[in-house]
Amino acid sequence: MSGIVIIGGGQAAASTSAKLRSLGYDGDLTIFAEEPVAPYQRPPLSKGYLLGEMPIDRLTLRSEEFWAANRIDLRLGVKVTDISPDDKSVGFAGGRVPYASLVLCTGAPPRRLPDAIGGALRGVFTVRTLADVDEMAASFKPGARLVVIGGGYIGLEAAAVARKLGLEVTLIEAALRILGRVAAPETADAIRDLHHAHGVNILEGVGISHLVGTDHVSGVALTDGREVAADFVIVGIGILPAVELAQMAGLTIENGIAVNEFGQTSDPNIWAAGDCASFNIDGDYRRIESVGNAVDMGELVATNLMGARVAYVPKPWFWSDQFDTKLQIAGLNIGYDETVRREGDGLSIWYFRSGTLVAVDALNDPRAYMVGKRLIESGKPVTADMIRTAEDLKALMK
């Protein structure tokens, strides 16, 4: 008997399946997870887990008893090879499983350096899975030389952990500054200063020519002729949505697996949620790469699979822990044209687009984050001058 099949073993898959059962879905429910471990939290991998502060049992999202008690057929270490929309089934090495509805939670694996410039050398790592971090953990020895390629959040978090563990760290960013795609210069300046204060060597505005080494990486050659010695390398240059199965099934792809406001793909029997799914924001198909989005989209898809027609209204929030600083972000700063900087207990950067508050970055300033998040979600009108001159941010919510 056909039921609901979920492809993917991350946060979106776990949230979709749990929500389905909580809403009373009583049919067959199968999850195909390519990794050999049950769904777990990914953000702590490059932070607490790598530092040894969070054991594996605290990473898992649900206990073994949960999956069994809720009759969720969790098939670990199984790679789905194809989707057949015509006969509504998915194929894998062991056969085929039919579905009444299919949910794609295939995620977004990291970009890798091309083999032609040394990307396949031993000692070159990405940070995405438990296996990735377990493999690189032995390299984190005091005094070891780490080169991080990419000045986004993943790269910066890895650099911070490495410095805490006593490694020599150089971070290389090809763009003119770190966090160039995701944060205002004020936020980037604060994060750069933080890393400099902890001994991270940051090189901006210079690209990678190639990695040095015949079998194991020994250095990174830069486009300006310099060479940085390396005992190992972490590549943090972004992620790509996993759309191969969706493409094979003939689904519409727009910067990910395109879904409508209800989470449905171009095939009404196939849905998508999480990092792999793109939806219309201000006229463009965008993806929100965050835990919050994976949870919210997964639960929305489950709700709509049960017959509701609820439109997705994203409430983006993100965070990043680096050294003794917690960066909390609310909203999307897409197309911002004005920023306001506030200093108090911490630092906050407020983003405005055409006079409307669209996002806030808060560094060790939980009050600013909380107020900004509520103002954005409520749509309460607030001007840049109001943020700039407010003596008490909380008063803006009244």
State the separation between the terminal residues, measured CA to CA.
54 Å
Oligomer: single chain
The CATH class of the largest domain: Alpha Beta
Mean pLDDT: 96
CATH topology of the largest domain: FAD/NAD(P)-binding domain
As residue ranges, the low-confidence spans are none
Full CATH superfamily name of the largest domain: FAD/NAD(P)-binding domain
- Could you give a short account of the major beta sheet? 7 strands, mixed
How many alpha or pi helices? 11
Q: What is the count of β-strands?
A: 23
User: Helix content range of the residues, please?
Assistant: 10-25%
Class inferred from helices and paired strands: alpha/beta
Q: State the CATH architecture of the largest domain.
A: 3-Layer(bba) Sandwich
Features:
Enolase-like, domain 1, 5-stranded parallel beta sheet, FAD/NAD(P)-binding domain, 7-stranded mixed beta sheet, 11 helices, 398 residues, 3 domains, alpha/beta
Quick description:
With 398 residues, the protein is α/β, with parallel strands linked by helices.
Fold and architecture overview:
- The chain folds into three domains: 3-109 and 239-305, FAD/NAD(P)-binding domain; 115-235, FAD/NAD(P)-binding domain; 324-397, FAD/NAD-linked reductase, C-terminal dimerisation domain (Enolase-like, domain 1, 2-Layer Sandwich).
- The protein has 398 residues and is an alpha/beta fold.
- The protein is globular.
- It has helices at residues 11-22, 48-51, 56-59, 64-69, 130-137, 153-164, 185-197, 244-248, 291-305, 366-378, 384-389; strands at 3-7, 29-33, 73-76, 80-84, 89-92, 95-104, 124-126, 145-149, 168-173, 201-204, 208-212, 219-222, 227-229, 232-235, 257-258, 270-272, 277-281, 284-286, 317-322, 325-331, 338-343, 347-353, 356-363.
- The mean pLDDT is 96.
- Strands 1, 2, 3, 4, 5, 6 and 16 form a seven-stranded mixed β-sheet that branches.
- The termini are far apart.
- It is built from eleven helices and 23 strands.
